[in-house]
User: Which sequence fits this backbone?
């Protein structure tokens, strides 16, 4: 029987890189779609524009919540405070908080890029 290592979360640099590629694709697709729609959007376009707004709200609220929980865990954990010197502990905590906060936004943007690349504009 082989032993599988648990899957590690993506690094902050990896998420930022994927986000840097996904965001322009999503924005370009949606702006083009908005320009082609004209004054009377179809039901499909209305659904996409509504989804655009609701996804952003959901992703950013999850992001703030995750950052708040990560901050509470890292700054108020007695075991963490004793295990590392002050500056490295603060740096690791800050990177962990940022990583937790970026994850929901990254997940949504990358999923949108994949979905919108398969979707025709008209």
Assistant:
């Amino acid at each position: 029987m082989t032993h599988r290592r648990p899957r590690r979360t993506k690094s902050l640099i990896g998420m930022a890189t994927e986000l840097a590629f996904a965001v322009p694709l999503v924005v370009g697709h949606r702006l083009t779609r908005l320009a082609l729609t004209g004054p009377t959007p179809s039901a499909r376009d209305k659904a996409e524009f509504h989804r655009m707004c609701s996804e952003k709200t959901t992703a950013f609220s999850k992001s703030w919540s995750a950052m708040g929980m990560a901050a509470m865990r890292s700054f108020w954990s007695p075991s963490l405070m004793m295990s590392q010197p002050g500056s490295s502990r603060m740096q690791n905590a800050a990177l962990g908080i940022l990583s937790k906060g970026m994850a929901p936004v990254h997940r949504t943007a990358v999923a949108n890029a994949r979905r919108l690349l398969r979707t025709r504009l008209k």
